Amino acid sequence: MSDNNDAVVIGVDYGTLSGRAVVVRVSDGAELGSAVHAYTHGVVDRELPGTGEKLPPDWALQVPSDYVDVLKTAVPQAVAEAGVDPANVIGIATDFTACTMVPTLADGTPLNEVPEYAGRKHAYVKLWKHHAAQPHADRINALAAERGESWLPRYGGLISSEWEFAKGLQLLEEDPELYAAMDRWIEAADWIVWQLCGSYVRNACTAGYKGIRQDGGYPSRDFLAALNPAFAGFVEDKLDQPIGQLGDRAGGLTAQAAAWTGLPEGIAVAVGNVDAHVTAPAAQAVEPGQMVAIMGTSTCHVMNGDVLREVPGMCGVVDGGIIAGLQGYEAGQSGVGDIFGWFVDTSVPASYAAEAAQRGQSVHDYLTELAAGQRVGEHGLIALDWHSGNRSVLVDHELSGIVVGQTLATKPEDVYRALIEATAFGTRTIIETFNSSGVEVTELIIAGGLLKNRLIMQIYADVTGLPLSVIGSDQGPALGSAIHAAVAAGAYADVRAAAAAMGNVERGVYQPDPDNAKAYDALYAEYVTLHDYFGRGGNDVMHRLRAIKRAAVAR
């Protein structure tokens, strides 16, 4: 480790709505200062900036200049709040939502910044929750299964519409002229690193999990041509790039990026990473069996394993995808906090908002207080947590949410609690699938904004039957990025060593209540029945409704 006790690093966490910079002391992981910058354009899912063009259903775009603004504002503000000398900053690292894709020219210029393309929706960033490529994902999955492609089981048997190939195929087939003009199809995680250090290094994490890169290669040219002849050269023409390992140095901070951030030119810029995966070292979850659930608008579940197994519906398994020398597994739920937010925004009467305001509470806190007073099963409801589709284990973004058991006596807090429970059931489904596949989950560690809600945490402990540990930081991804920055700067030999010194976790904070756990077993059985009925072909009504909606919008 570096002998400089004053050395600090910067971790920048790019989320769905904002970017956060955190200044972290290298010697012990102390978080000295932070700042947040909300994206000016947020999530573009209704109409295109500038033109007002109405976007179709399931589209979710972003504007890449918003990402650069985080470097210009949040980083210097965090350094100022920390009160540290910028000269003591030895490295910077970033993490990003994934799969979030930026179409660019050869020099990295986003296509939406090219005047002749600014009015075309495919020129913008496709955010992780852009699900309009589902038909293209279906074709990829069907062809891969038919051909027996060896990489398909590494992703639980299904490729997601959120990932690089499905979104790229959609771009080709819906705007072939723009596809031809695009030189690079690049993860935002790598694009922002390019802006910092002037070098395009493709990180091993997104390449493996989101880019179908297994055993050193991608899907074959022959496979891609069978999808569409014009797609044959997708990998070599648009995607392929030298791979950087996690914790490696991608380059040094350029003069331009130094001017943006106020940091010293030439300091280490770490290879990019994903917000979920980078959080594991921050929570000191670097051993097999320690599953980290990063709970926010969605939940991503990541864990290391010392065995390679095919887990149905997992998002992927990548050698060294989290920690070198171990298999990194990923699963997830497409909607969690987003579901609670949707319910509060659309389904709570004004009288509840008024009462919450009178109490000095948020509506979320008020509903939580009311729901916490209920016994397990008292509301008589069961819900499916598919309002943003299902990522794991069904990998089907055409699915939708449902609440069963409502009556004229059902109250908002009843539904709110049922939705919380549904997301916990979704996590239990993922854990049980890993366990039955030979990848044992021994500990559940929670990170992300939702860990502050004690009711949610206790419900998760009761539903899963596992003790819940919690990360000891409010900024898990940013701390994880800072850990990688320290390694890239040479302060620690590897990510394990840096995590031991700089990570933070509180073990076993929430313990399952045996009576509640038993009651939840009965409710979970009902959840499984609905899960399989609507999600495994018993009744395809959700798919049919999606088709009807698309047809109606198209008229």
Can you offer a commentary on this structure?
- This is Ribulokinase.
- The chain is built from 19 helices and 22 strands.
- Strands 1, 2, 3, 5, 11, 12 and 13 form a seven-stranded mixed beta sheet that branches. A seven-stranded mixed beta sheet has the order 16-17-15-14-20-21-22, with helices on both faces.
- The longest helix has 25 residues.
- Helix content is 39%, strand content 18%.
Structure annotation, total helices: 19
| Rg result | 23 Å
Broad shape:
globular
Low-confidence stretches: none
The end-to-end distance, rounded to whole angstroms, is 64 Å
Helix content: 25-40%
Structural class: alpha/beta
Question: Which whole number gives the mean pLDDT?
Answer: 96
Biggest sheet, in brief? 7 strands, mixed
- State the total count of DSSP E strands: 22
Strand content: 15-25%
Enzyme class: transferase
GO molecular function, one term: ribulokinase activity
InterPro entries: ATPase_NBD (IPR043129), Carb_kinase_FGGY (IPR000577), FGGY_C (IPR018485), Ribulokinase (IPR005929)
Pfam family, one: FGGY_C
Q: How would you concisely characterize the structure shown here?
A:
Belongs to the ribulokinase family. With 555 residues, the chain is of the alpha/beta class.
